[in-house]
Each structure stands twice: as C-alpha cells, then as structure tokens.
Design brief:
single chain; Membrane-bound Lytic Murein Transglycosylase D, Chain A; two-stranded antiparallel ribbon; 2 domains; alpha+beta; four-stranded mixed β-sheet
Length: 171
C-alpha cells in the first residue's frame, strides 16, 4: 500500500495524560534532540502496545514514530491481508498521527480492502449503501473493523475504516 494519510486530530488518544513526553512529541512540541527521540520512542511503544491490545500482531512487528511530521512507520510480516490492514488502521487512527508508512508484508496475500474516512453524518448503513449498494450490509463493515470497533454506532468523523471487497468475509 505504501503511504496512508489520516486526519491527525482524530483517533485514539494514546499520548498525553499518562505520558506527557509522548504527548509533546505527537503534537510536535518543542523538545531537544535527545528528548524528542526518547519521546518518539515512547510514542512508538504506545502505538505498538495499542496494536497488541487489539489482539493484532505480526512477526517482527516494528513501529516507529516521527513527531516532526506526525508519521508512523510499521514493518513486519502479518499472517494475512486483513491483519495487515487492521494493524495499519490501529497505527493511523491515533490522535497525532497523520501518515502511516506501510512496510508490512503478508504471509498469505489476498485482495486488498478499500479504506474509507468517516465524515460527519455517516453511519455504517450509509457507508454500506454507498460502497455495496445495500445499507443492510453494514455488519460486513463492522465485522471487518473489529476489534477496533466495539459497536456499529460508535464511529467518529476522521476515523478510517476497512471496506472489504463485497462478499469477502471479515476475520
């Protein structure tokens, strides 16, 4: 996939309260070089831990964060295309992240999903109607975005979702 763009102000708030340095890095705050590198590493570890908290992993998973441009680079080998896409979304749907550089490979290649950025007024039914021509297909989108989504009504503007090819079962 290469490079994915995200809305930097939207997403999981992993930086800040529990880790002021990572929060400063994510916001591009003023830090000395050494402090900035340490904050970037702390932010990268927070993102990696978030990915693992979603029961997602890849062989040799490596995540780096660059506070200067709000980008994440993720590498390793995912077991399948769906896992890869979910890891990328976990890395990008974080407040403070504007881009994800995708260096992940896949052990079992498959067709790639589309990605869709939620806008104000969207529902999964509305998105399903636009993408599949059937609003009742919203559960396919919901299932494709588990465990990041916990309820079909809990989506937010700026969030990026996986839209699997019609008829492809979500894992």
């Amino acid at each position: 996939m290469g490079l994915l763009s995200f809305i930097k102000e939207a997403g999981e708030k992993l930086f800040g309260k529990g880790n002021a340095q990572a929060g400063q890095a994510a916001k591009g705050g003023p830090d000395s070089g050494a402090d900035s590198a340490a904050a970037d590493e702390t932010a990268a570890q927070a993102i990696k831990q978030y990915v693992k908290s979603q029961n997602l992993d890849a062989d040799g998973l490596d995540v780096t964060f660059n506070s200067a441009d709000g980008s994440v680079t993720v590498s390793g080998q995912a077991k399948d295309q769906q896992t890869k896409e979910k890891i990328l979304l976990c890395c990008g749907n974080v407040a403070g992240v504007g881009q994800v550089h995708d260096l992940l490979t896949v052990a079992t290649p498959a067709d790639e999903a589309k990605f869709y950025t939620v806008v104000k007024g969207d529902t999964l039914s509305k998105i399903a109607k636009e993408q599949y021509g059937d609003g009742n297909a919203y559960m396919q989108i919901f299932e494709a975005n588990k465990p990041m989504l916990t309820h079909p009504d809990k989506i937010y503007p700026g969030q990026m979702l996986r839209i699997p090819p019609a008829g492809r079962k979500a894992a």
